[in-house]
Amino acid sequence: MDSLSQLALGSAIGVAVMGRRTAVWKAALWGGVAGTLPDLDALIDFGDAVANMTYHRAQSHGLFYLTLFSPLLAWLVSRIHGEAALFKRWWLALWLALFTHPLLDWFTIYGTQLWQPFSEEPLGLGSMFIIDPLYTLPLLIGVIVALSLKSATGLRWNMIGLGLSCAYLVWSAIAQQHVLSVAREALRQQNIVVDGMFATPSPLNTVLWRVVGMQKDGYVEGFYSMLDPDKTVRFDTFPHDSALYETTKALWAVDRMAWFTDGFFRIKERDGKVTLADLRMGQEPNYVFEFAVAERRGERFSEIRPTIAVGQRSDPRAALAWTWQRLKGNVIPPPR
Question: Which of 140, 161, 202, 279 has the maximal Cβ count within 10 Å?
Fold first, then answer.
């Protein structure tokens, strides 16, 4: 999730666990710090664009490492404020703020290596968009009221905010399963066979969902809104150059992205360069992560230092306008 959501969650947890044992501002401050710390790995340059993407949310998001770090952070905070007697309480608060950061990231589709150092497998449910105001606002309101009132009433508001945000996460997972069920039936009715499929929400909501299914030489993309009059998904088909993948799959960046995306990627040759896009984030033809990974030299392709590929970009205002109309159940084709 975005940094504001992680900060708000950490602050809300800090206030909830510390209660009135310390000043509310201290609990909110250090809870927010702990909730933000794992994302500092984004400041590290791992050498190229593909490495920076695929090594993010790795060691710094491992539940084991965060658990080991939590007593050190609690010791530091309790000493700074002269509250050594509250060390165990600070430990619980900051451990929860650290621990829930990667768990919240797990709800997005990017992938989070929760089991580091025992496994590098990136895990992601994909039921939440990276920014969703309906998740973040209850947390922010609860923390702000707790800071403003500094009373039992303020603490109750904070708990309500936490409860609403957790309920929203549960809703997103239930909604995702419903969408997947609708999509499977639509694929069956349209005689479309896929090797794998995912459903993830469109930006800023959990009402309009994007569904992608992978095939050998292509992929299908469709959209479904909870407000659609017909319980079905209309799919469009797009090409995926499987022959090009077979030619270049031994290259580190291609192999790394195929693994990281769990096979949901598009590879093609454009202007003499091989570009690879992560199909999980964005929508056709615009993807958040698309990289140039090789270039043609005669009949062969040579590996190059992966860079961000500058491809087609849509008008953000037009995209948001379409999202709003499609969310309301108006079945109109997406901008291409």
Answer: 161
Q: Nearest to residue 48, comparing CAs of 263, 243, 292? A: 292
Beta pairing, strands 218-225 & 282-283: unpaired
Each residue of 235-255: pLDDT tens digit? 999 999 999 999 999 999 999
Residue type, 196: G
Handedness of CA 24, 26, 32, 34 (dihedral sign): negative
Which range of residues forms the domain containing residue 123? 3-172
Max alpha carbon distance in the chain (Å)?
Answer: 73
The residue among 130, 127, 114, 104 whose CA lies nearest residue 288 is: 130
User: Do residues 131 and 1 make contact, with C-beta atoms less than 8 angstroms apart?
Assistant: yes
Cα–Cα distance, 41 to 60 (Å, whole number): 7
Q: What's CA 43's distance to the chain center, in Å?
A: 18
| Distance from C-alpha of 101 to C-alpha of 200, rounded to nearest angstrom | 20
Rounded (5°) CA angle 29-35-40: 110
Q: Are 281 and 308 found together in one domain?
A: yes
Read off the pLDDT of residues 276-290 as tens digits, 9 standing for 90 and up.
999 999 999 889 999
How many domains in the chain?
2
pLDDT digit string (tens) for 114-166?
999 999 999 999 999 999 999 999 999 999 999 999 889 999 999 999 999 99
Buried b (16+ CB within 10 A) or exposed e, 45-80: eeebbbbbbbbbbbebbbbebbeebbeebbeebbee
Radius of gyration of the chain (CA): 22
Tell me, yes or no, whether 101 lies in a domain: yes
